[in-house]
Amino acid sequence: MTKGPSTPHSFPGWTDLFQSLSMPFVLLQRQTNQKIKLLRSNTAFQQLFNLRLTSRTQGLNQLPADFISQLQLLCQHQKPVFWCLSSDQDNCRQFKMQLEQPDPSDPACYLLVMQDISEQQTALLLLQQQKDELQKRLTDIEQLKNRISEQAIRDPLTNLFNRRFLNEFMERELALARRNQKPLAVVMLDLDHFKQLNDQFGHQTGDTVIEMVAKHLLRQSRRTDILFRYGGEEFLVILPNTNAAQARHLAENWRQHVQQAQIFAKHQTISITLSAGLACYPEHGTTAFNLIQAADEALYQAKAAGRNQVMMC
């Protein structure tokens, strides 16, 4: 009688080696009708699925449907797949399933190797959680730094930019005006008789007036305008790409809105007015210092001429 080709499980010592492996192993055979036949499984595989197998040729019908589905996918594409064995405690054991050909002379025979990667997956998950937590902390720190930086350049009462940030803005806007050959205007504004208002109604009312004026300036400004609280009751506005006529129109609009506003203190209505001086690049100066100085001189002229008006240097 002629012997057929040897199968891996017929090699001397195969059974002992196969059964001693701690990883689940299965010897499979793909039949001509593409169905999968389970030839042998080791103890680790049988314990994994709580199988009680007595026959030499073992069926797949005792295995979970999702496992069989992944096995069929694996046999079809010959690429590793992953499968999760869930327990009643919602724990999941992750397995990487891949095929090996132990006998090149029998291409229909495969060895299914199931590698338990649960600890790796748990470690990766923990590492990802730690990475996400670290990223969140870094984001929080960055946001905190931004808030601190913002607070350093903002006036706490009006939320306008403060004077410390003025030079940086002026140099940047002047550089853009020079490069693009565009005009630029600077308007200096000051509340009229503010010291008297403070003395009569108190500093709290004075702060309320400053807040109100800042809100009016913001509402009536363009998105490109840059507003500063220059100090005390003084404000400064940088107007990019704005000529003298446009700057005067904007300043007059601010003046009129502030004059029409009313504030109540000590059971009476307080009327507020402001004076404004403006200067333009390049007519009145080509540096930040010269432009601010020219706007300040124009403001002084507006005060001297009777207040509640706009003057240009």
Automatic annotation (TrEMBL):
Its EC number is 2.7.7.65. It catalyses: 2 GTP = 3',3'-c-di-GMP + 2 diphosphate. It holds the Pfam family GGDEF. Keywords: Coiled coil. Residues 182-313 form the GGDEF domain. SMART domains: GGDEF. The keyword Coiled coil applies. CDD domains: GGDEF (cd01949). It is an enzyme of class 2 (transferase). Residues 117-151 form a coiled coil. This is diguanylate cyclase. It comes from Rheinheimera soli.
